[in-house]
Structure formats: structure tokens, C-alpha cells
Amino acid sequence: MLLPLILAGIAFYEVFFGLRVLSHIRGMSAAGSESLAVVRSEEMSDDDKSKAMLRMSGLVFRETGLALIKTLIAAAAAAAVLWLVSLILGPALGWSFDALLRFSISLIGLIGVIVALVIYGKLRSHGRD
Predict the structure, then answer these.
(1) 120/108 Cα distance (integer angstroms)
(2) Residue 49 pLDDT
């Protein structure tokens, strides 16, 4: 029952990195750092600081929203893999979608997927930023 979880994890990994979610996380971090620099600035007027902070908060909101939506898409891809496995192999092996979901949050399931994805990520990470 671990193999379907690993396949779902790989689907999540590929969609997560394919949609470049980390670029949005970096964007949030950069906007936060820039906001801090604006607050600390002694050269900027209060009006300029207000405009800059409004722009930064919009940027943080946008980047957070995009990262969340793309992460949910990656999670949906993983769920779709589990659903397909339950449809195709489920009847023969007794793997219902609910059973796969329950196993995915068990200790053995979580450890197995984490170990497999760390190895997969190390092997697959060439060329990624």
C-alpha cells in the first residue's frame, strides 16, 4: 500500500515544482524584507512609507494567494493519483480510496513517503533553482 502513496507524493512534488511555488515563497520573503527596510528608512516621508507599505502588502497578499492556490493544485494531483489507483488496482488489491487516505496519514505511510521523496528529490533536483 506504500507504492500508491509514493506515486502520489511524486505527483505532488512534480506539480509543486512545475508550478514554481517556491518562486512565490521567495517573493513573499523579499517583500517582507523590503517592507522592513521601508519602515526603517529615515529618508522616506511618512506618505512615501505608507504608499510603499500598501504596495508591499498587496504583493505579499498576491504571492501568498498564488502559493496557496498552486499548493492546493499539487495536493489535488496527489489525491487524483490515489483515486486512480483505488479505481484501477483497488478492486483487485482491496485498496479503497478511503483506505489509501487513512494509510497516507499513518506513521508508516508518512515515514515511507518522506523517505522516498527525499531520495526522489535528491535524484530529481538537477537543474532546479
Answers:
(1) 18
(2) 85
